[in-house]
Amino acid sequence: MDKIEREIEREIEREIEREMETEMENEPGKENIETGNENMPDRKKEAGTEIAVNTLNEKNVDIIIEGIDIVRTFLMGEVEVRVLLLSALIFRMGDGEPIMGPSGSGKTTLLNQLGLLDTPNSGKVIINGADTSLMFDREKGRFRLHNLGYVFQDYALLPELTASENVFISLMMQGKSKAEYESAAAKILEAVGLGDRLSQLPSKMSGGQQQRVSIARALAHNPIILFADEPCANLDSQNSKEVLDLFKKFNKELGQTIVMVTHEDWHAEYTDRVIRLKDGVLEQ
Ligand SMILES: Nc1ncnc2c1ncn2[C@@H]1O[C@H](COP(=O)(O)OP(=O)(O)O)[C@@H](O)[C@H]1O
Ligand SMILES: [Mg+2]
After folding, report:
1. Residues with CB under 5 A from ligand 2 (ion)
2. Of the ligands numbered here, which is closest to the C-alpha atom of 277?
3. Among residues 140, 168, 193, 215, which is most buried (max CB within 10 A)?
4. Ligand 1 atom closest to Cα of 110?
5. For residues 150-165, b (16+ Cβ closer than 10 Å) or e, as one string?
């Protein structure tokens, strides 16, 4: 277990580093002069908004995620360039339509705002009724750990850990018992077709298998939303199909809300509807 504890410590350190980077980079926060701290949410604006960690919205809704008036700009040299201008985007419970756009159209930037991996210059992301713009960075970290799952193009598995360990590490961080996290990992790895590979290292697996481990990791804690940034970009078409079939299964059969971005037009065959992004703006 030592190596897992080490990995958890590293993961926590990485999370802290990410938070510090966000604090340093966050142009947006400069607007928050009142508090003097760019990452200090102004809770006075919306009294009574409590942060819901690991709770499904009991009130109204089937709206799971809502992006409102989001602007994200980056400094390129001396010039500030706007790469995202999103007036409104809603995903309801069980939605799974992909967001499509060519390379450079702002897909990753959009996904990072919706998935709370970046902070917009202005605008809000409301997840499951919680206004995430009011969260402190630490709360956002906890919210992500408990409520959101991510799949990336490069799988982002920890090479020293087995498939099973890669999957249960976040459950350990959530404080689940050994029996709970081990059986949860085995169950979800079974569901992605890797029930016979629990103790295999990523280096002994194909790209498609590694991506399926990363999907299992993203889903192990039953996230409210699964975010996927070009999950097939490094895969051949057969493995891409397997990954998309899995997404379809979790979406259609199990009602998992999925927010995926892709530049591959043929991925549209897997869903009824697509959302198109061009130059940082959604096409109607
Ligand atoms: N951290 C950043 N700093 C500067 N420019 C960025 C940064 N992230 C993205 N961009 C720019 O924003 C645009 C959109 O990028 P991105 O969201 O990665 O597009 P996509 O994922 O659709 O390929 C690109 O022109 C890219 O160069
Ligand atoms: Mg991208």
Report:
1. 107-108
2. 1
3. 168
4. 17
5. bbbbebebbeebbbbb
